Amino acid sequence: MNILIIGGGGFLGQKLARRLIARGELRGRQIAGLTLADIAAPAPLDAPFDIACTACDITDRAAVDALLAPGFDAVFLLAAVVSSHAEAEFEDGMNVNLHGVLNVLESLRLQGRAPVLVFTSSLAVFGGEVPDPIRDWTIPNPQTSYGTQKAIGELLVNDYSRRGFVDGRTLRLPTISVRPGRPNRAASSFMSSIIREPLNGEEAVCPVDPEFPHYYLSPRLCVENLIRGAEIEAGDLGQSRTMTMPGRTLTIRQMIEAMTAVAGPEPAKLIRFEDDPAIRDIVSGWRFDYDPAKALALGLEADASFEENVRYYLEDDRPA
After folding, report:
1. Considering the entire predicted model, what is its pTM?
2. Domain 187-214+248-288+304-316: CATH class, spelled out
3. 3-state DSSP assignment of residue 26
4. What is the CATH code of the structural domain delimited by 2-174+217-244?
5. Is 146 one of the annotated active-site residues of the chain?
6. Which of 82, 218, 242, 246 has its CA 20 to 30 A from that of 301?
7. How far apart are CA 259 and CA 196, in angstroms?
């Protein structure tokens, strides 16, 4: 089993790589090789099998063809320009989230190998005037350029799978929290910052109201779900290769209460509420009531509580 992670330098790509290394197998087959690709070559990892780390700009079709030339049994396509970045820089979002995805799909089509392809989409494909709860068959109605680009990617993966070019499966990710590292240009970045920074003894700013609700999943369960998604048999996916990953809906207040239950009252004192109109304009179009029935039926899972999300960060990612 030879595996490629596109976006392998990002925090999810790195966690996925480490989990695959620890498992040593995927879809019942031993892993013989793992390649991590990103816009800059990811740092090398130790593994009991061949591992390669390489730079690849997926907006460059020739670079994509060269990356995919060795042939892979499974491809995880995680690379993306995130929400606020895609909204502020329209061309960046289109180049990576639409044309880059199409480059990967076209290169795989012309190879004729039909590998398993796991594509990460987003809840940003939903919005506007649709009834709650949002189900797997709810028609996407994105209210941002990022959501529109991801929705197009979903349709492409579905059609390329229908035609037998890839064995695709698309997983719409909840907001992943608590994510490690520093804030990025995702509009949802503050949903990790308001937990991560206080746990690290630093001040954090929350740009929305304490009663703002959203749909969450921990990085640890997200990685497990990506792997389970890759292992689902094609016949069990049905006519739609797209599903919403399980998560839990919480308000900002409930997240902070969960942090307090795990880490005591001091971290919450480092959070300051300060309205940000640009962030508010984006997140006001988001939805938070989801019914991930398909993913649950296929064995994917949500965290038992947000307290678990906090504990996972403390165990896996908080700087020593």
Report:
1. 0.95
2. alpha beta
3. strand
4. 3.40.50.720
5. yes
6. 82
7. 10
Q: Given phi > 0 = left and psi -120 to 50 = alpha, else beta, which region is 128?
A: left
Find out whether the peptide bond into 267 is cis, omega within 30 degrees of 0: no
Domains of the chain, residue spans: 2-174+217-244, 187-214+248-288+304-316
Rounded distance between C-alpha atoms, residue 107 and residue 120, angstroms:
18
Cα–Cα distance, 33 to 16 (Å, whole number)? 14
What is the predicted pLDDT for the residue at 182? 79
What pLDDT score was predicted for residue 183?
Answer: 76
Cα 180 to Cα 283: distance, rounded to the nearest angstrom:
21
Task: Identify whether the C-beta of residue 27 lies closer than 8 Å to the C-beta of residue 116.
Answer: yes
**Average pLDDT of span 3-10:** 97
User: What is residue 277's predicted lDDT score, i.e. its pLDDT?
Assistant: 87
Q: Spot the catalytic one: 146, 160, 290, 313.
A: 146
Q: What percentage of the chain has pLDDT greater than the value 70? A: 100
Taking residues 200-206, report their average pLDDT.
Answer: 95
The two tokens of residue 178 are: 């608590």
